[in-house]
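User: Need the bound-state model for phosphoenolpyruvate:
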Amino acid sequence: MTDTKNITSWLDDFQLNHPLIIAGPCSAETEEQVLKIAHELKNSDVSIFRAGIWKPRTRPGGFEGVGAIGLKWLQKAKQETGLLIATEVATKAHVELALEHDIDVLWIGARTTVNPFAVQEIAEALENTDKIVLIKNPVNPDLSLWIGGLERLHNANIKKLGVIHRGFSTYEKTKYRNNPEWQIAIEMQSRFPDLPIICDPSHITGNRNMIGQISQQALDLNYDGLMIETHINPDEAWSDSAQQVTPDSLKSILKNLKVRKESDEDFDYVSRLTKFRTQIDETDEKVLEIIGKRMKIVEEVGALKKEKNVAILQSQRWQEILEKMQSIGKENGLSEDFIIRLFKAVHQESIHHQGKIINNQS
Ligand code: PEP
Ligand code: MN
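Assistant: Bound-state model below.
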Protein backbone atom coordinates (compact mmCIF):
# COMPACT_ATOMS: atom_id res chain seq x y z
CA MET A 1 0.00 0.00 0.00
CA THR A 2 2.20 2.77 -1.19
CA ASP A 3 -0.03 5.38 -2.80
CA THR A 4 -2.73 6.21 -0.30
CA LYS A 5 -3.38 9.71 -1.58
CA ASN A 6 -5.99 8.95 -4.23
CA ILE A 7 -7.68 6.19 -2.28
CA THR A 8 -8.50 8.40 0.64
CA SER A 9 -10.02 11.46 -0.98
CA TRP A 10 -13.47 10.31 0.12
CA LEU A 11 -13.11 12.45 3.20
CA ASP A 12 -12.58 15.59 1.08
CA ASP A 13 -15.88 14.86 -0.64
CA PHE A 14 -17.64 15.66 2.62
CA GLN A 15 -16.33 19.24 2.24
CA LEU A 16 -16.27 19.78 5.98
CA ASN A 17 -14.63 22.65 7.76
CA HIS A 18 -14.40 20.57 10.94
CA PRO A 19 -13.45 16.98 11.78
CA LEU A 20 -15.73 14.21 10.52
CA ILE A 21 -18.20 13.25 13.23
CA ILE A 22 -19.76 9.80 13.42
CA ALA A 23 -22.33 9.43 16.20
CA GLY A 24 -25.19 7.21 17.22
CA PRO A 25 -25.90 4.44 19.71
CA CYS A 26 -23.62 1.54 20.50
CA SER A 27 -26.52 -0.71 19.48
CA ALA A 28 -29.72 -0.24 17.58
CA GLU A 29 -32.36 -1.30 20.12
CA THR A 30 -35.76 -0.36 18.70
CA GLU A 31 -36.96 1.52 15.65
CA GLU A 32 -38.13 4.34 17.86
CA GLN A 33 -34.75 4.64 19.63
CA VAL A 34 -32.86 4.72 16.31
CA LEU A 35 -35.12 7.36 14.78
CA LYS A 36 -35.20 9.56 17.87
CA ILE A 37 -31.41 9.69 18.13
CA ALA A 38 -30.97 10.25 14.39
CA HIS A 39 -33.42 13.18 14.45
CA GLU A 40 -31.60 14.74 17.39
CA LEU A 41 -28.33 14.50 15.46
CA LYS A 42 -29.72 16.01 12.27
CA ASN A 43 -28.61 19.65 11.81
CA SER A 44 -25.51 19.17 13.94
CA ASP A 45 -21.88 18.57 12.98
CA VAL A 46 -22.64 14.86 12.68
CA SER A 47 -22.33 13.51 9.12
CA ILE A 48 -22.63 9.78 9.73
CA PHE A 49 -25.09 7.97 11.98
CA ARG A 50 -23.74 4.78 13.56
CA ALA A 51 -25.53 1.86 15.22
CA GLY A 52 -24.39 -1.71 15.87
CA ILE A 53 -26.80 -4.36 14.60
CA TRP A 54 -24.67 -7.41 15.32
CA LYS A 55 -22.84 -6.95 18.62
CA PRO A 56 -19.67 -8.91 19.33
CA ARG A 57 -19.88 -9.47 23.08
CA THR A 58 -16.85 -10.63 25.02
CA ARG A 59 -18.98 -13.08 27.04
CA PRO A 60 -22.18 -14.78 25.91
CA GLY A 61 -25.46 -13.82 27.50
CA GLY A 62 -25.33 -10.06 26.86
CA PHE A 63 -27.42 -8.29 24.26
CA GLU A 64 -26.11 -9.54 20.92
CA GLY A 65 -27.83 -7.05 18.66
CA VAL A 66 -31.22 -6.89 16.96
CA GLY A 67 -29.91 -8.38 13.71
CA ALA A 68 -30.96 -7.61 10.16
CA ILE A 69 -34.23 -5.92 11.13
CA GLY A 70 -32.14 -3.01 12.43
CA LEU A 71 -30.84 -2.32 8.93
CA LYS A 72 -34.35 -1.25 7.93
CA TRP A 73 -34.44 1.19 10.86
CA LEU A 74 -31.11 2.63 9.74
CA GLN A 75 -32.42 3.04 6.21
CA LYS A 76 -35.43 4.87 7.58
CA ALA A 77 -33.15 7.11 9.67
CA LYS A 78 -31.24 7.97 6.51
CA GLN A 79 -34.41 8.75 4.55
CA GLU A 80 -35.78 10.96 7.31
CA THR A 81 -32.60 12.82 8.28
CA GLY A 82 -30.26 12.67 5.30
CA LEU A 83 -27.45 11.37 7.53
CA LEU A 84 -25.24 8.66 6.06
CA ILE A 85 -25.52 5.36 7.93
CA ALA A 86 -22.83 3.08 9.35
CA THR A 87 -22.76 -0.32 10.98
CA GLU A 88 -20.27 -3.01 12.01
CA VAL A 89 -19.81 -6.10 9.86
CA ALA A 90 -17.99 -9.23 10.97
CA THR A 91 -18.94 -11.89 8.40
CA LYS A 92 -19.72 -12.29 4.71
CA ALA A 93 -23.43 -12.61 5.55
CA HIS A 94 -23.34 -9.28 7.41
CA VAL A 95 -21.69 -7.61 4.41
CA GLU A 96 -24.28 -8.99 2.01
CA LEU A 97 -27.16 -7.77 4.15
CA ALA A 98 -25.51 -4.36 4.67
CA LEU A 99 -25.04 -3.97 0.91
CA GLU A 100 -28.67 -4.99 0.25
CA HIS A 101 -29.78 -2.26 2.63
CA ASP A 102 -27.55 0.46 1.17
CA ILE A 103 -25.47 1.00 4.29
CA ASP A 104 -22.98 3.76 3.39
CA VAL A 105 -20.15 3.07 5.81
CA LEU A 106 -19.10 -0.32 7.14
CA TRP A 107 -16.67 -0.73 9.98
CA ILE A 108 -14.68 -3.74 11.05
CA GLY A 109 -14.68 -4.14 14.82
CA ALA A 110 -11.67 -4.61 17.06
CA ARG A 111 -12.47 -8.27 17.70
CA THR A 112 -12.63 -8.92 13.96
CA THR A 113 -9.45 -7.09 12.95
CA VAL A 114 -7.49 -9.62 15.00
CA ASN A 115 -8.63 -12.40 12.69
CA PRO A 116 -7.11 -12.36 9.19
CA PHE A 117 -9.54 -15.07 7.99
CA ALA A 118 -12.52 -12.94 8.94
CA VAL A 119 -11.03 -9.76 7.45
CA GLN A 120 -10.22 -11.61 4.24
CA GLU A 121 -13.79 -12.94 4.02
CA ILE A 122 -15.17 -9.42 4.51
CA ALA A 123 -12.75 -7.96 1.97
CA GLU A 124 -13.81 -10.53 -0.64
CA ALA A 125 -17.49 -9.91 0.04
CA LEU A 126 -16.90 -6.19 -0.46
CA GLU A 127 -14.64 -6.51 -3.51
CA ASN A 128 -15.00 -3.62 -5.97
CA THR A 129 -17.77 -1.83 -4.05
CA ASP A 130 -17.44 1.89 -3.44
CA LYS A 131 -18.42 1.73 0.22
CA ILE A 132 -16.45 3.58 2.85
CA VAL A 133 -14.78 0.94 5.04
CA LEU A 134 -13.23 1.82 8.39
CA ILE A 135 -10.99 -0.61 10.23
CA LYS A 136 -10.81 -0.45 13.98
CA ASN A 137 -7.50 -1.29 15.60
CA PRO A 138 -7.26 -4.90 16.82
CA VAL A 139 -7.92 -5.44 20.53
CA ASN A 140 -4.25 -6.28 21.08
CA PRO A 141 -1.55 -3.65 20.51
CA ASP A 142 -0.31 -5.04 17.20
CA LEU A 143 0.26 -2.47 14.47
CA SER A 144 0.99 -5.12 11.81
CA LEU A 145 -2.36 -6.76 12.31
CA TRP A 146 -4.05 -3.40 11.89
CA ILE A 147 -2.06 -2.65 8.72
CA GLY A 148 -2.73 -6.20 7.50
CA GLY A 149 -6.47 -5.56 7.70
CA LEU A 150 -6.04 -2.38 5.70
CA GLU A 151 -4.00 -4.19 3.06
CA ARG A 152 -6.56 -6.99 2.69
CA LEU A 153 -9.25 -4.41 1.93
CA HIS A 154 -6.98 -2.44 -0.35
CA ASN A 155 -6.12 -5.62 -2.26
CA ALA A 156 -9.86 -6.19 -2.77
CA ASN A 157 -9.95 -2.87 -4.61
CA ILE A 158 -11.80 -1.03 -1.87
CA LYS A 159 -10.75 2.56 -2.31
CA LYS A 160 -12.51 4.48 0.42
CA LEU A 161 -10.58 3.39 3.47
CA GLY A 162 -9.97 4.78 6.92
CA VAL A 163 -8.93 3.57 10.37
CA ILE A 164 -10.51 3.95 13.78
CA HIS A 165 -8.36 4.11 16.90
CA ARG A 166 -10.39 2.62 19.79
CA GLY A 167 -7.61 1.69 22.19
CA PHE A 168 -6.13 -1.66 23.22
CA SER A 169 -6.95 -4.23 25.89
CA THR A 170 -4.61 -4.68 28.80
CA TYR A 171 -4.66 -7.35 31.45
CA GLU A 172 -3.99 -4.81 34.13
CA LYS A 173 -6.68 -2.33 35.07
CA THR A 174 -6.05 1.26 34.00
CA LYS A 175 -8.29 4.30 34.07
CA TYR A 176 -9.21 3.53 30.47
CA ARG A 177 -11.46 0.75 29.24
CA ASN A 178 -8.96 0.32 26.40
CA ASN A 179 -5.54 1.85 26.77
CA PRO A 180 -4.99 4.45 24.03
CA GLU A 181 -1.32 3.60 23.31
CA TRP A 182 -1.17 6.79 21.23
CA GLN A 183 2.23 5.84 19.85
CA ILE A 184 0.70 3.00 17.82
CA ALA A 185 -1.84 5.29 16.18
CA ILE A 186 0.88 7.91 15.60
CA GLU A 187 2.99 5.24 13.88
CA MET A 188 -0.02 4.36 11.70
CA GLN A 189 -0.38 8.05 10.79
CA SER A 190 3.27 8.38 9.89
CA ARG A 191 3.23 5.23 7.74
CA PHE A 192 0.06 6.33 5.91
CA PRO A 193 -0.09 10.12 6.18
CA ASP A 194 -3.08 10.46 3.83
CA LEU A 195 -5.20 7.77 5.40
CA PRO A 196 -8.07 9.24 7.43
CA ILE A 197 -7.77 8.35 11.10
CA ILE A 198 -10.74 8.61 13.40
CA CYS A 199 -10.65 8.42 17.17
CA ASP A 200 -13.29 6.49 19.13
CA PRO A 201 -13.06 8.06 22.59
CA SER A 202 -16.11 6.09 23.75
CA HIS A 203 -14.38 2.71 23.57
CA ILE A 204 -11.03 4.13 24.72
CA THR A 205 -12.44 5.63 27.90
CA GLY A 206 -15.49 3.50 28.65
CA ASN A 207 -16.56 6.57 30.61
CA ARG A 208 -18.66 9.43 29.30
CA ASN A 209 -16.89 11.99 31.53
CA MET A 210 -13.57 11.46 29.78
CA ILE A 211 -14.80 11.71 26.20
CA GLY A 212 -14.22 15.45 25.77
CA GLN A 213 -10.65 15.22 26.97
CA ILE A 214 -9.69 12.27 24.75
CA SER A 215 -11.42 13.86 21.75
CA GLN A 216 -9.33 17.00 22.25
CA GLN A 217 -6.17 14.94 22.52
CA ALA A 218 -7.02 13.26 19.21
CA LEU A 219 -7.60 16.59 17.50
CA ASP A 220 -4.30 17.87 18.90
CA LEU A 221 -2.69 14.91 17.14
CA ASN A 222 -4.36 15.87 13.82
CA TYR A 223 -6.97 13.13 13.73
CA ASP A 224 -9.50 13.52 10.94
CA GLY A 225 -12.59 12.64 12.89
CA LEU A 226 -14.31 11.24 15.94
CA MET A 227 -16.76 8.39 16.50
CA ILE A 228 -18.79 9.02 19.65
CA GLU A 229 -21.49 6.72 20.98
CA THR A 230 -24.66 8.72 21.52
CA HIS A 231 -27.91 7.52 23.04
CA ILE A 232 -31.19 9.16 23.90
CA ASN A 233 -31.09 7.61 27.36
CA PRO A 234 -27.51 6.42 28.01
CA ASP A 235 -28.13 4.92 31.43
CA GLU A 236 -30.76 2.61 29.98
CA ALA A 237 -28.71 1.59 26.94
CA TRP A 238 -28.66 -2.14 26.23
CA SER A 239 -24.87 -2.10 25.71
CA ASP A 240 -21.96 0.16 26.73
CA SER A 241 -24.19 2.40 28.85
CA ALA A 242 -21.40 4.04 30.91
CA GLN A 243 -19.69 5.47 27.85
CA GLN A 244 -22.65 6.84 25.89
CA VAL A 245 -23.63 10.51 25.91
CA THR A 246 -26.92 12.20 25.09
CA PRO A 247 -27.23 14.13 21.81
CA ASP A 248 -27.16 17.36 23.82
CA SER A 249 -23.94 16.44 25.63
CA LEU A 250 -22.43 15.40 22.31
CA LYS A 251 -23.19 18.84 20.92
CA SER A 252 -21.65 20.52 23.92
CA ILE A 253 -18.54 18.30 23.75
CA LEU A 254 -18.16 19.21 20.07
CA LYS A 255 -18.69 22.90 20.74
CA ASN A 256 -15.89 22.93 23.30
CA LEU A 257 -13.32 21.21 21.09
CA LYS A 258 -10.53 23.29 19.65
CA VAL A 259 -9.61 22.31 16.13
CA ARG A 260 -5.92 23.03 15.60
CA LYS A 261 -4.44 23.98 12.28
CA GLU A 262 -2.15 21.33 10.82
CA SER A 263 0.61 23.89 10.57
CA ASP A 264 1.27 27.58 10.45
CA GLU A 265 3.76 29.22 8.17
CA ASP A 266 4.15 32.15 10.51
CA PHE A 267 7.86 32.64 11.10
CA ASP A 268 7.71 33.30 14.81
CA TYR A 269 5.61 30.18 15.31
CA VAL A 270 7.96 28.02 13.26
CA SER A 271 11.08 29.24 15.03
CA ARG A 272 9.62 28.83 18.50
CA LEU A 273 8.37 25.36 17.64
CA THR A 274 11.76 24.37 16.24
CA LYS A 275 13.46 25.62 19.38
CA PHE A 276 11.16 23.64 21.63
CA ARG A 277 11.59 20.53 19.50
CA THR A 278 15.35 20.85 19.69
CA GLN A 279 15.13 21.13 23.47
CA ILE A 280 12.94 18.04 23.55
CA ASP A 281 15.40 16.08 21.39
CA GLU A 282 18.30 17.10 23.60
CA THR A 283 16.42 16.14 26.74
CA ASP A 284 15.49 12.76 25.24
CA GLU A 285 19.15 12.10 24.43
CA LYS A 286 20.09 12.83 28.03
CA VAL A 287 17.35 10.52 29.29
CA LEU A 288 18.79 7.68 27.19
CA GLU A 289 22.36 8.39 28.31
CA ILE A 290 21.25 8.21 31.93
CA ILE A 291 19.32 4.97 31.38
CA GLY A 292 22.43 3.55 29.69
CA LYS A 293 24.45 4.46 32.80
CA ARG A 294 21.83 2.79 35.00
CA MET A 295 22.23 -0.42 33.02
CA LYS A 296 26.00 -0.37 33.50
CA ILE A 297 25.44 -0.21 37.27
CA VAL A 298 22.90 -3.01 37.00
CA GLU A 299 25.56 -5.13 35.25
CA GLU A 300 27.92 -4.54 38.19
CA VAL A 301 25.17 -5.77 40.49
CA GLY A 302 24.76 -8.79 38.19
CA ALA A 303 28.46 -9.60 38.53
CA LEU A 304 28.17 -9.37 42.30
CA LYS A 305 25.11 -11.62 42.38
CA LYS A 306 26.90 -14.12 40.18
CA GLU A 307 29.80 -14.24 42.59
CA LYS A 308 27.41 -15.00 45.45
CA ASN A 309 25.04 -17.14 43.34
CA VAL A 310 22.00 -15.00 44.17
CA ALA A 311 18.78 -14.87 42.05
CA ILE A 312 18.25 -11.88 39.73
CA LEU A 313 14.74 -11.01 40.78
CA GLN A 314 14.24 -9.68 44.26
CA SER A 315 10.64 -8.61 44.39
CA GLN A 316 10.81 -6.69 47.66
CA ARG A 317 13.55 -4.43 46.31
CA TRP A 318 11.51 -3.89 43.16
CA GLN A 319 8.40 -2.89 45.18
CA GLU A 320 10.49 -0.41 47.15
CA ILE A 321 11.86 1.19 43.99
CA LEU A 322 8.38 1.48 42.52
CA GLU A 323 6.92 3.13 45.61
CA LYS A 324 9.77 5.58 45.94
CA MET A 325 9.68 6.49 42.25
CA GLN A 326 5.93 7.04 42.31
CA SER A 327 6.33 9.61 45.02
CA ILE A 328 9.25 11.34 43.26
CA GLY A 329 7.29 11.14 40.02
CA LYS A 330 4.38 12.88 41.67
CA GLU A 331 6.63 15.73 42.80
CA ASN A 332 7.67 16.09 39.16
CA GLY A 333 4.12 16.17 37.84
CA LEU A 334 4.23 12.61 36.43
CA SER A 335 1.23 10.31 36.70
CA GLU A 336 1.34 7.13 38.74
CA ASP A 337 0.34 5.15 35.70
CA PHE A 338 3.28 6.50 33.68
CA ILE A 339 5.77 5.77 36.47
CA ILE A 340 4.55 2.18 36.70
CA ARG A 341 4.84 1.64 32.95
CA LEU A 342 8.22 3.40 32.76
CA PHE A 343 9.76 1.47 35.63
CA LYS A 344 8.35 -1.84 34.44
CA ALA A 345 10.17 -1.28 31.16
CA VAL A 346 13.37 -0.17 32.94
CA HIS A 347 13.15 -3.15 35.27
CA GLN A 348 12.66 -5.58 32.41
CA GLU A 349 15.69 -4.17 30.61
CA SER A 350 17.71 -4.40 33.84
CA ILE A 351 16.79 -8.06 34.30
CA HIS A 352 17.87 -8.66 30.73
CA HIS A 353 21.26 -6.99 31.35
CA GLN A 354 21.82 -8.90 34.60
CA GLY A 355 20.80 -12.14 32.89
CA LYS A 356 23.51 -11.58 30.28
CA ILE A 357 26.14 -11.18 32.98
CA ILE A 358 24.97 -14.06 35.14
CA ASN A 359 24.64 -16.47 32.25
CA ASN A 360 27.74 -15.22 30.45
CA GLN A 361 25.81 -14.22 27.36
CA SER A 362 26.94 -11.43 25.11
C1 PEP B 1 -18.70 -0.65 18.81
O1 PEP B 1 -18.29 0.25 18.07
O2 PEP B 1 -19.80 -0.63 19.39
C2 PEP B 1 -17.81 -1.79 19.11
C3 PEP B 1 -18.25 -3.00 19.42
O3 PEP B 1 -16.54 -1.41 19.08
P1 PEP B 1 -15.12 -2.20 19.22
O4 PEP B 1 -15.07 -3.12 18.05
O5 PEP B 1 -14.18 -1.05 19.15
O6 PEP B 1 -15.14 -2.88 20.56
MN1 MN C 1 -20.06 0.04 21.88
